[in-house]
Amino acid sequence: MEINSYVIFFAAIFTSNILLTNFLGMCSYLSVSRELESSFGLGMAVFFVLTVTSALNYIIYHYILVPLDLVYLQYIVFIIVIAAFVQLAEMVIERFSPLLYYSLGIFLPLITVNCAILGVSLFLVIRQYSFIQSVAYGAGSGIGWLFAIMMLAGIRNRVKDKYLPKGMAGAAISLLATGIMALAFIGFSGVVIIQ
Amino acid sequence: MIILIINNVVILAGIGGFLAMLLVIADYFLANYGDCNIDINQGKKKFTVKGGSSLLSSLAEKMVFIPSACGGKGTCGLCKVKLLKEIGPVLPTEKPYLDKDELKNGVRLSCQIKVKQDIFIHIPEALFSIKKFRGKVERIIDYTYDIKGVYIKLDEPKNIEFKAGQYVQLESKKYGKVKQVVSRAYSMSSPPFEEDKIELIIRLVPDGIMTNYVHKQLHQGDDISFTGPYGEFFIRDSKADMIFVAGGSGMAPFKSILADLEKQQSKRRIVYLFGARTEKDLFLVDEMRHFEDTLADFTFIPVLSQADEDSDWKGKKGYIPPILKDYVKDPDNTEGYLCGSPGLLAVTEKEMHKLGIKNVYYDSFG
Questions:
Q1: Residue of B7, B16, B26 with shortest CB distance to A80
Q2: What 3-state DSSP class applies to B110?
Q3: Interchain contact B315–A (C-beta under 8 A)
Q4: ipTM value of the model?
């Protein structure tokens, strides 16, 4: 693939936002977006894990799984790598920011099963990215996810005290807002395409 | 085929093992806080602990016991300590238990904060007198179908000094499928002048780790340990009338208090309202009648909320709060002492305030 890594990086943030175009990683996106502060924390954690795991998974895939002809193990291996790195991220956060550690609570270990992270690792294999491209895609997706959750948190903060019909409150209005955001992001799609 | 399978397993195990090793190394460097110093009351007591565990447990390790009814779960809010030097922001798990003044003065829950650096704290001097006691179960009495009295003879130290109404934290041991050790608060029901033993009154709570341990595992002669004494629930020194209100095992502190008052030959006017469901739930009635004879002005009034229609119960029926007003002579000169379930306490305290009783002291099971 001949796409420039910068292009991939920005495309992953805007045109191919992992959350708004692939709808991956919705669970924690909907449940932690109540406050700006904690969504920023979770977004940063996802960004960190995504960047590192996409690099690690690239190395493991191309230098261990492919030579040994064990490509079919990729799902299991990717998940193990992600799980290990979430553990590491947890330790780092607990050490340096206990407040964030407590406010993320159960969602920190849940990054392990955040499908955006496994999704990125699988996409970079399917799209045959190089190492640099993979890291750019991972980091871009992380920032894209961070953007999306922070925007939703901002919207939810605005909507919080407004009158809503009963059926629209809670998850329904969040999903609608996400849909409108996704439509808005399609506006970027003329810029670059990396599919 | 076999080779292929072995190959897969080895590769997976290799990757897994490598990552696990990485985590162990990271854990060693990241979760290692080294030795931290804890300084209590500006140099009164100083010691060094290994960092990483909660302040509450680090202090307990060094024989400084902060009261904690829940045993460090962060649900009772009793283990407050004042930090003289800030160590970081207040955690969301602490906020519900701290009021504005406490937040301003650096008060924190010692079970929630971890020792990661040198810590300077201030605690009431009285807490230094809290000790760990070891003893043996002398006897266990069945008061009702679900309430037992446990007498503990002290081995080490041999004597305990406390005020009638205070409580201890009893420690359980592992039993059956329960692998965790818990500690729970129980009031002494024996009077302070019996210095070589204590009695605790414990009601069986379904699925309660501690109460099941006491009711089903504990036998005469077993070793048991506790820390104490804790608490501010004791008789205030005045001449005012007193109204005691208790339910179930809330009897415990009053049994101790009454025996103590009997020894002091108190002349104060005392009314003791004891709430129970049926006659089956009443206990120690004879002992209370005995106090009516020996104390100058003491009345014991059991109140049954669900007395059987066909029983020959001649005493009070219903609930305590509505009949409180019949026993208050002069609200300004009356003190209320309450011990029982949080529900009973809340309603009774409200009613007492409505009747004009300002001094209400209580010991909640919450």
A1: B16
A2: coil
A3: no
A4: 0.71
